[in-house]
Amino acid sequence: MRSLEQQLGTPLFRRVGARMVPTSVGARLAERIRIGMSELDEAFTEARTGTAAGASPSTVRLEVSVMTDLAAQWLIPRLDRFSAQHPGIDLMIRLHADIAAPDPYSVDVGVWHQRVEETGFVTRKLLDDYVIAVCRPELVDRIPNFTIADAAKLPMLRFSHRSWRDWLVAAGLPPREPTRGPIFDDAGLLLRASVAGQGLATTRSLLVRDAIAAGELVQVGDVCIAPSLEYYVSWREHHPRERAIYAFWQWMQEEIAATVPLAKGIGRGGKPALPEAQNDANCER
């Protein structure tokens, strides 16, 4: 890279703390190279398939980086609907497990927990979500006349990125953190453990609405608390595949609007721990 900068006579990266951030020249160069590589890829694809350029509508490939929990629990089960609506767009899904956002130049669209603050990027908040507690229905069925006060009798699964305190306080229960049992670092694995009947888990409502509708999980109480992190969708301004990006963004908004609403929780009690203007009796926006 240093040799290339010497040949060009201009820096392509600058150091910001421990990170190397592209300069404006470096960003433009990376984008032009990316466009060129994409065109080469399409040319080789046409050569392999024997399809002449312009013989049929070209397919656009869109690289999308998505947080693993959102991808596994919500996006992937809906991809067939996107393909049916947009047969000319192929999505390449790249999973992202870290809380920190990756290099925003590495993909066409990023669905991450962090905003992209760099100049030349568009960032949109995906939705206003909230956190609830869920478990297998069989767990609450074992306790006669179950109320939210009985939630503390259930095994409480631990998540490294969220404590139980806020939920317990909103439920009117002593804020005692569980001290035994496995600790999950991934929200998707936490939910798999809950679906397997291993205990009560706190989770974003969007991730479990399908499981609740299918009867695999039930919401315990009507307690809703704010998440510590949001989902943001980011892409570069004036992207060469901008139409495909907007189609994907609009489709996500439509799917979120069509996601099944939550029913009332089992053993109702507690109170929504959210700003009053942002929820009704069941925390729906």
Automatic annotation (TrEMBL):
Alphabetically ordered keywords of this record: DNA-binding, Transcription, Transcription regulation
Start and end residues of each HTH lysR-type domain: 1-23
PROSITE patterns: HTH_LYSR (PS50931)
Chain ranges passing through the membrane: none
GO molecular function (one): sequence-specific DNA binding
InterPro entries according to UniProt: LysR-type_TF_proteobact-type (IPR058163), LysR_HTH_N (IPR000847), LysR_subst-bd (IPR005119), WH-like_DNA-bd_sf (IPR036388), WH_DNA-bd_sf (IPR036390)
GO biological process, one term: DNA-templated transcription
Family, similarity comment: Belongs to the LysR transcriptional regulatory family.
PANTHER family with a match to the protein in the record: HTH-TYPE TRANSCRIPTIONAL REGULATOR, HTH-TYPE TRANSCRIPTIONAL REGULATOR TRPI
Entry protein name: Transcriptional regulator
Organism annotation: Pandoraea pneumonica
Top-level taxonomy: Bacteria, Pseudomonadati, Pseudomonadota, Betaproteobacteria, Burkholderiales
